[in-house]
Design a protein that fits this description.
Nucleotidyltransferase, domain 5; six-stranded mixed sheet; globular
């Protein structure tokens, strides 16, 4: 990972596991990288798309996942995933807000991220995210200068990395740890109680 004098950005995606998950869990993960290296990461990921859409963990099979994980392992990035359990499926937005609060703290305080991009959602759900971010700023949980945006995953392959990582962590949570094990020490897991 680049030294602390390098400006760092994070791209964030989510996943949830309810079926076959004990306990049900919500995952919010970010990939931390230097913006200068990100274009090379994007270029390495684009050929792995199997459609014109984003690279999505749930849409690819085992051999494709193996290729994707192999490429991601070569990136100079850090992955941080907050795992919130037990998740009440009727209160998923509450789970997201709690995980976002912890992830934002980790990214700011421990990784010195200055710009974060959350995967875009519906306008009303993005507004919820903005309220959560504003509340964090109000409590001093985020530096006022930290920029937080939403990004379209069709236009931003860096969001695909976060999707792949939370997918691998979700699979490990439901009993298939091979993808997470393949990433060795590149994924930092933070567990919180919801």
């Amino acid at each position: 990972m680049p030294g602390s004098d390098v400006e760092l950005h994070a791209w964030i995606d989510e996943s949830a596991r309810v079926a076959n998950a004990e306990p049900p869990a919500y995952f919010l993960g970010g990939v931390v990288a230097a913006p200068g290296a990100s274009e090379a990461h994007r270029d390495a990921l684009r050929p792995l798309q199997n459609t014109r859409r984003k690279l999505h963990w749930r849409d690819i099979d085992g051999p494709h996942r193996r290729r994707v994980i192999s490429v991601i392992k070569g990136f100079d990035v850090q992955h941080v995933v907050v795992v919130g359990t037990p998740m009440d499926s009727k209160r998923q937005e509450r789970a997201r807000a709690l995980c976002l609060e912890r992830l934002a703290w980790e990214l700011c305080e421990r990784h010195h991220v200055i710009h974060t991009t959350l995967e875009a959602r519906t306008p009303s759900l993005m507004q919820r995210d903005r309220r959560t971010i504003d509340a964090l700023r109000g409590r001093g949980g985020l530096p006022k200068g930290m920029r937080v945006d939403h990004g379209n995953p069709l236009d931003e392959p860096m969001l695909w990395i976060a999707d792949q990582i939370v997918g691998a962590v979700g699979d490990a949570h439901t009993g298939d740890g091979r993808w997470l094990q393949a990433l060795t020490n590149a994924v930092e897991l933070i567990r919180i109680e919801l």
